[in-house]
Specification:
alpha+beta, Ubiquitin-like (UB roll), 3-stranded antiparallel sheet, 1 helix, elongated
């Protein structure tokens, strides 16, 4: 079966991550097929940039652009 092409949408996700003893704010804009995948992508991006596990990243808002 051929899967239909799904349109990528932009999501703006903001939250905080643990930086030493402080929590730093962030906002990321990502293109994704749905909200869940966009949130997973942000966990991956922030985690790899700062060497953090998901429990040290708090997502606070997700909006579709």
């Amino acid at each position: 079966m051929i899967k239909e092409f799904e349109e990528m949408e932009n999501y703006i996700i903001s939250g905080r991550f643990k930086a030493g003893i402080r929590w730093e704010k962030f906002t990321k804009k990502v293109a994704s097929q749905n909200e869940k995948n966009a949130e997973d992508k942000v966990y991956s991006l922030i985690g790899s940039e700062h060497g953090l596990k998901r429990n040290l990243i708090k997502l606070e808002s997700t909006t579709k652009e």
